[in-house]
Amino acid sequence: MSLKTLSPNFQARLTSIMRNVGRGGKLLNLGCGDGYFNPFLAERFKQVYAVDVNLVDLQIAKKLYHRNNITYKKASAVH
Fold it and tell me: In Å, how far are 1, 16, 51, 63, 65 from 11, measured between CA atoms?
């Protein structure tokens, strides 16, 4: 199943996210999942910290979306 099927307005949502996220030095992508947005973020920021509680998703993200300025970390936002 394609992203287009799952979310017909996916491109519009991605455009909106990219417009609102800005640019700069460091960005924390908390709940990064399988990392799909990380390459887009890595183009706009010097360093992206991609964090998720799911180790399997992080392994997928590392394999598919490896960039020198993306650091992956398994962690929870809940204390």
Answer: 16, 9, 23, 23, 19
